[in-house]
Amino acid sequence: MTTTGGNSTVEALRVVVLVMVAAGVWAAWKRSLFPGTWAHTFHTAYAEQRGLLAQARRQLSAIDKDQLRAEKEAAGQVKTEKEKREQHIGKLQREVALLQDPGRGTELGRLGGLVLYEHAVTASMEGRLLPLHGLRARFDRGDRVHSLYLTKPDGGGDRAKFPHRPDPAADPEGSIRLFDEEEVRDFEMKINEAAAEEKAFRAGLAEQLAGKREELAEARKDTTGLSAAEQKQADVRDRNRTDPRREEALANLTAARNHWQDLTGRRPPR
Predict the structure, then answer these.
(1) Per-block average pLDDT, block size 10, for the chain (270 residues)?
(2) C-alpha distance from residue 43 to each of 19, 50, 150, 245 (Å)
(3) Nearest alpha carbon to residue 150 among 163, 139, 159, 141
């Protein structure tokens, strides 16, 4: 029981100390805003003068906040327009780079080790890429293995093999994927269709690249949105700098501070 009572007393003292510290901090803050004697800071006799000074501060603070908000919005619009322009130019740059060097493109499908891409095909995962432009795929039926011959315009190429019967000499325990003729022929057709699309793409590539380069050049020259946002930002700054409301509020605060200084001999902060 004694221990419990002692703890309660300590806790009560802690609360009292915290209240006293908070009160001291508040009083010091109040004294900094309204310097002078204790009476000037707290007595009701000077409440009207303190009220006038506080009101003048609030009016100027409200205008400053409005101006700051307007400048932040204008700056945010400039940032948005810059980012929008940079993103648009970056997108066009990537499109130009892709037209200059299309690479193999995205994967369109695969069958066994044969992999078909937008602009190329390879007979195996480790094999060399064969450009689709001018390429021709041809199916060849075999007794045990079907083949797809990939022939380039110059006569070179590669061969993809698709077993459709087990090899009698192979390990019977080993598993191997078998392909039927229809799925191999379907992939032959898919390759030839992709090659036809590639031919059309290459036929219009020079014109498409020239058009995209021109579009990029125009985008780099076009600063309409950004210039408008920057002009608005400059207008907001000019308007804030010459805002008659702020000049009046500042004059009112200066007069209130002068009056307080005449009253107390101490000049209060803004």
Answers:
(1) 67 84 87 91 91 94 96 97 97 96 93 94 86 95 93 91 80 74 96 96 94 97 96 96 93 93 91
(2) 21, 10, 100, 32
(3) 159
Contact 211, 99 (CB under 8 A): no
pLDDT on residue 182: 95
Where b means 16+ CB within 10 Å and e means fewer, 40-63 reads: bbeeeebeebbebbeebbebbeeb
Give the pair of three-digit tokens for residue 5. 């009572």
Read off the amino acid at residue 172: P
pLDDT at 165: 86
Contact call for residues 270 and 34 (beta carbons, < 8 A):
no
Look at residue 110 and give its three-state secondary structure.
strand
Output the pLDDT for position 127: 77
> What tokens does 123 get?
């007979």
Main-chain phi, psi angles of 4, to 5 degrees: -65, -40
Closest CA relative to residue 250, chosen from 63, 122, 112 = 63
Dihedral angle, C-alpha 10, 14, 20, 23, nearest 10 °: -150
Q: DSSP class of residue 45?
A: G
List strand residue ranges (DSSP E) for 152-240, in order: 157-163
Residues in the chain: 270
